[in-house]
Amino acid sequence: MAGGLDIAVRGRAELGEGPTWDPAEERLIWVDILGSRVHRFDPATGRRTVQTTEQHVGAAKPRAAGGLVVNLRDGVGLYDEAGAFSWLTHQPVPGRRGNDAAVAPDGSLWAGTMRYDEAAGGGALTWVGPAGEAVTVLPEVTVSNGIGWSPDGSLMYFIDTPTRRIDVFDVTEDGGVTGRRTFVDTAGLSGSPDGLTVDADGCVWAAFWGGAAVRRFTPEGRIDVAVAVPVSQPTACAFGGKDLSDLYITTASVGTDPAAEPLAGSVLVVPGAGQGLPQPAFAG
């Protein structure tokens, strides 16, 4: 890992989450879930834009057709390039909201949900196709969080945060998953695993909420890199930049003391941290 930690975007996002590099626009996209905002940042120019969403937004990902797919409180929606909104799947459940989401190698969206009160089993992980087809793959999830695929697409990693595990599945020929098992049990580490990304070497990087760290696990499940961050609540990480070598880390300010954690809610970056994988756009 090459460099030290820098501040990419200084801010006070309540619950910054879901960093995603948009290769078409060469910019970083992330959300402030509780602030109902989608942020975009161009590291080459420093330009930032903010889009307010209709509801709390758990994730925002680029679409192949232009615009964004968003995981909202009441379902999954689409914004076109002009900013017009439409629902792709509208499935409101009182007390529940969208959380982290990821686009699979085949262009489908895997969208997680959770209850606001974090009641056990109150969320789910749902597969969403480009035409709005929706299949609940994992019911009774508590806090559906990080999702990612191995470089060859044969494995899918998943975090249900209160379990303090990173689980792994085998990916089937039709893009589904089977054979859930523990990849890493993190109970002995500080903090709880939140968002994740997979690099070109097949290593899994996970942000640890309450642990002030991002840790990299080898394909065998061994920690070989630990990045200490100056905030207690890092939420997720993703590789970005033109060569996908910079590791961007979103953070949360909710419940923190601004005097003690002035960078909570900012986006941090570790230049030259590794080699990321290109992230596909949503096919819808």
Give a brief outline of the structure.
It contains no helices and 24 strands.
Describe the structure.
The chain is mainly β and 284 residues long. The chain is 0% helix and 52% strand. It contains no helices and 24 strands. It has a 4-stranded antiparallel β-sheet with strand order 1-24-23-22, with no helix packed on it.
How many E strands? Answer: 24
Overall 3D form: globular
For the largest beta sheet, what order do the strands appear in spatially? 1-24-23-22
Rounded mean pLDDT is: 97
**What is the CA-CA span between the terminal residues?**
36 Å
Largest sheet: 4 strands, antiparallel
What is the H-and-E element order? EEEEEEEEEEEEEEEEEEEEEEEE
Low-confidence stretches: none
Strand portion, in percent? over 45%
Helix run count: 0
The class by helix and strand makeup works out as: mainly beta
Rg over CA atoms, rounded to whole Å, is: 17 Å
Assign a percent range to the helix content: under 10%
Write the layout of secondary structure elements.
Elements: E1 6-9, E2 16-22, E3 27-32, E4 37-41, E5 48-52, E6 57-62, E7 68-72, E8 75-79, E9 85-90, E10 96-103, E11 109-115, E12 123-128, E13 134-141, E14 144-149, E15 155-160, E16 165-171, E17 177-185, E18 192-198, E19 204-209, E20 213-217, E21 223-228, E22 234-240, E23 246-251, E24 267-270
Antiparallel strand pairs: 1-24, 2-3, 3-4, 4-5, 6-7, 7-8, 8-9, 10-11, 11-12, 12-13, 14-15, 15-16, 16-17, 18-19, 19-20, 20-21, 22-23, 23-24
